[in-house]
Design brief:
Number of strands: 5
Largest sheet: 5 strands, mixed
Radius of gyration: 14 Å
Strand order of the largest sheet: 1-2-5-3-4
Strand content: 5-15%
Distance between the termini: 33 Å
């Protein structure tokens, strides 16, 4: 279920309480919830995931992303979360796509190579085409 974006970052569709222990077993120290609360009637509430993460000794942060797109504040929050994780990171949303796109933007904003970012996302089954132009601009320091 978890898809590897880099040596330290995994993306996933919506997780459940039991997935927190599985993430911890894979070296995850931080769970990032990129899904807005109430987006779907069947999603596990963020507060429940946060409680399970705390019980497992994992950090938890919410950076909700709607279908409206990405803001500079979200990119900065993701960059800060990734930089301060101190271990593996699991980012999730409904399908994992928004988490992957936000990860790509954060990586590019820190000087990551756009082609490498795109290749890692593709290997995990995600396409960053919707944000590729912004990834290129961020990597070049123009955004």
């Amino acid at each position: 279920m978890f898809r590897k974006l880099s040596d330290s970052v995994l993306a996933s569709p919506q997780i459940e309480i039991a997935d927190v222990a599985a993430a911890a077993a894979q070296g995850v120290t931080l769970i990032i919830n990129n899904r807005p609360e109430g987006e779907s009637d069947d999603q596990t509430p963020g507060a429940e995931i946060a409680a399970a993460a705390k019980a497992a000794g994992l950090a938890y942060v919410e950076i909700p992303v709607t279908h409206a797109g990405f803001s500079q504040a979200q990119v900065e929050a993701m960059s800060e979360a990734l930089a301060g994780a101190g271990g593996g990171v699991l980012a999730y949303c409904r399908s994992g796509t928004r988490s992957t796109l936000l990860w790509a933007l954060a990586e590019a904003s820190q000087g990551g190579d756009p082609d490498t970012i795109a290749a890692h996302a593709a290997a995990a089954g995600y396409d960053i085409t919707p944000v590729r132009a912004l990834v290129d601009m961020l990597a070049a320091g123009k955004a």
